[in-house]
Amino acid sequence: MEKLLNRFLRYVSVDTQSNEESETQPSAAKEWNLLKMLEAELKDLGVEVTLDEYGYVMASIPSNLDKEVPAVGFIAHVDTAPDASGANVKPQIIENYDGKAIDLKGVPGLQLKPEEFPEMLHFVGQTLITTDGTTLLGADDKAGVAEIMTAVQYLVEHPEVKHGKICIGFTPDEEIGRGVVKFDVPRFGADYAYTMDGGEIGELEFENFNAASAKIHIQGRNVHPGSAKGKMKNAILIGQELGSLLPVEQRPEYTEGYEGFFHLISFKGTVEEADFAYIIRDHDRAKFEAKKVLIQQVTDFINTKYGEGTATLVLKDQYYNMREQVEPHYFIIEKAIKAMEMAGVKPKIQPIRGGTDGANLSFKGLPCPNIFAGGLNFHGKMEFVPLESMEKASQVILNIISLFAD
Fold it and tell me: Which residues are catalytic?
């Protein structure tokens, strides 16, 4: 566990926040720092590895069996979410957690409280790694990166362990939905793969949201307020009106399980013009398409009311539900279930209320369910991860490898 902890702390110290506004890949130059670090560490372990111009680290360990078995891959992303800073991360290590509130010492008075996050009580007696309250932690998905690298090191140090071909992948830009846009599946070389990008221990997911982005530009008309009657069109208020036409009960704060939503993620503007960015999510493909139709209809209504060209909508699909691609290969889910049980972990199969690189990889021909990495409260200053959960995740990786070898 000490190796795993030190590895994780080293990775979260590198700022890898991706940038949705950038057109490059990786979207932020600082992502290269961790990608190059991982390439060097794999080389030092004697593992064959490449880092290409798109920021994909791909490594492989040859089979040591005298029979043919499927090649299995493990994938994690290096970038952290744009939602909160990933610079100057100062982790707090809470050993033998006692079930009480934890002071996040970077912000006076700020605490991680079990009354607000009752799942903390699942980990009493364990070692928790938290933020100091000024940044996110980066367990999403540097926990996954550390777990994979720890498993790789174990295999290198224990050549007696029997295994088929093992493929390792680290990707940039997952948090902005572009993680595997240029990922070369044939070059990666796996027949099946798993992303180590889930949350709490035991999570196993092969269903995710269908996802789209909706960017709406409102063109208003600014006139001096003293003479604005009958002339002014306030772009901010028109954008608010458009948002009010979407179902209130289909906002994230009112949904759970398989329920989809419209989520306003950003706004900027003035009376003259304003921009509103939404994300649209639903597990059910028909309901997903209906949501896209609805946001087009409310945009059309605004143009009818305020004049053509007032509202401009740009809709873009981001990824689709991987279930239809993974379910025909359900034995890879069964292997993950068995691997968790072997590690003493109770599997919790559930839909992802989000997405992973595995969704797009599954549609590229690489069935790729998602396994827990152990972290909780991703994308914000309340993020934390139990060290014991990370250790179990690394054990699950080794167990999957063993099951594929059999």
Answer: 79, 174
